[in-house]
Amino acid sequence: MRLRIAALALLAIAAIVAVATWRDPFLPIRGEFARQRIAAGLSRAQVEAAGHRWVYAMREADDADAPTIVMLHGFTGSKENWYPLARELGGRYRLLIPDLPGWGESERKPGAAYGFPEQAANVDAFIRAVSPGQPVVLLGHSMGGGIAALAAARYPQHIAKVGLLDAAGVRFKDNRFGLDVLAGHNPFAVSDAASLRRYIDTVFFDADAKPWIPWPASAGLIDKRRKDAAFEQGVLDRIGRGPHNLLPGSEAARIRQPALLLWCRQDAVIDPSALELYAQRIPQARKVLLDGCGHMSLVERPRQVADAVLKLLETE
User: Fold this and answer.
1) Residue 38 covered by a domain
2) Is residue 13 domain-resident?
3) If the chain, 316 residues long, is cut into consecutive pieces of 10 residues, what is the mean pLDDT of each piece?
4) Could you give the number of structural domains in the chain?
5) Strand pairing partners for 98?
6) Domain span at residue 232?
7) Is there a domain that residue 276 lies in?
8) pTM surpassing 0.85?
9) I need a labelling partner for 149 at 20 to 30 A (CA). Which of 24, 240, 277, 300 fits?
10) DSSP assignment of 8-68, as one string?
11) Which DSSP letter does residue 173 get?
12) What is the DSSP secondary structure assignment for residue 106, as one 8-state letter?
């Protein structure tokens, strides 16, 4: 009798999950993100800054005097991209990992600009809101790297150190991705299963690190990316070929803080030639070139990225 009741209960739970997933195909992905956040010891928080509602993941440090690290995701990315690195860093530092305005769970305002200068100002406002009077270590990946470079150059009083991972913002050696962007296309666009696979294959090199996204989660992700297509194109037009697309690189010469430049040799998005271009402008930066990984260094090689970040934190 008890087994029968247990079986009926499991069937009822399965039915509830099936109905919920049918109504919201993105639900499994949100559930997986929540699992990763909890595994990394992070909690979810919100703050108002720069006229936007920000949603971010955070973890307080074991030592109240430990540095604060702010992490900025890339184009089409989200705060969840940083969770593997957050796990590697443990509880030694205060971690603040936001969805940038317009992306993820943070607020998107119709007609607002989300290019490099606008987001750099937004990030400065976020830092002042969540770390008042205390400069932070700012890490940025891809688009977030360009934003971090510009923020470090323009708001040095709030940024003690900066790390650029596979960062946008310089005119790197031509590759297929860059030429498509300059031609006005979005190489990251996702509209069906084939383009989702192409997107994943473009940003990842290490096959073992590529995420497996089964149906119906894949359907939910495809649907979301379709709805975001116009927004993505608008942002890419600004950061990829607009008048401010190379602003991070040109202003990076003003960065005086200790810095890290980290790339993967097999990056098919931001060619590794960008590392040297940034290094010419930030001569004090420590350079790290990893092998066997692509654009998603923070996911493909989180242990090695963590080691590089720890050395940045030790730099005076």
Assistant:
1) yes
2) no
3) 48 38 65 89 97 97 94 98 95 96 97 97 98 97 98 98 98 95 95 96 95 88 95 97 96 98 98 98 98 97 98 90
4) 1
5) 56
6) 28-314
7) yes
8) yes
9) 300
10) HHHHHHHHHHHHHHHH-TTHHHHHHHHHHHHHTT-EEEEEEETTEEEEEEEE--SSTTSPE
11) P
12) S
